[in-house]
Amino acid sequence: MNCSNPKEFLMSLPTDYTVDMAYKNNDVLLTPESRSYNTAKLNNFITNVQREIPDCILITTFGIDGPATTSVLNYDGNSLTFTYDNSRYSGTHDIRSFLVKRIYTKLSTNEFSTNLIYYAETYDGYNFQIFRDVTFHNKSY
Q1: End-to-end CA distance of the chain
Q2: Which member of 3, 64, 98, 128 lies 3.0 to 4.6 Å from 56 by CB, making a disulfide possible if both were Cys?
Q3: pTM, full prediction
């Protein structure tokens, strides 16, 4: 993936970017069924940022209503950016970039699953979710 221009890269992805495409592309992926894949890539990215090693990853999430939301986390050795493409919902090139101060996680548990939620905090104090790693509990009823 070319990380020099995340907006351009995100615009180059097909409008009908599917779960299968994202899986084959090795994206950090959350499917419509709340199955997460390649979360280790996200954790490795965070480690690389802490070690000041440039890195870049593609995150793709699907809601229950279908279209993909794609985003790029990019660390160039100096600054960390999160570029988010919501155009498959809006029908326009709704791509935004944020300069990120830090990435952090919160754990949420209910009777069905445990969710490790990844957040980005901007320098102006804005916090937003960037990914959710879901582990389902196997309970017999």
Answers
A1: 45
A2: 3
A3: 0.90
Q: Could you give the CA distance from residue 70 to residue 76 in angstroms, rounded to a whole number? A: 19
Q: At 133, which amino acid appears? A: D
Q: Say if CB 134 and CB 30 are below 8 A apart.
A: yes
Strand order in the sheet with 80-85: 36-37, 28-30, 55-62, 68-75, 80-85, 95-109, 113-122, 127-136
| Whole-angstrom distance, CA of residue 63 vs CA of residue 61 | 7
CA distance 141 to 39: 29
* Extents of the domains making up the chain: 6-102
Tokens 């509990």 sit at which residue? Answer: 137
Least Cα distance to 130 among 72, 75, 80 occurs for: 72
> How big is the CA angle at 28 (ends 23 and 30), to the nearest 5 degrees?
75
Percent over 90 (pLDDT), the chain: 72
Alpha carbon 51 to chain centroid, angstroms: 20
- Tens-place pLDDT, residues 32-46: 988 999 999 999 999
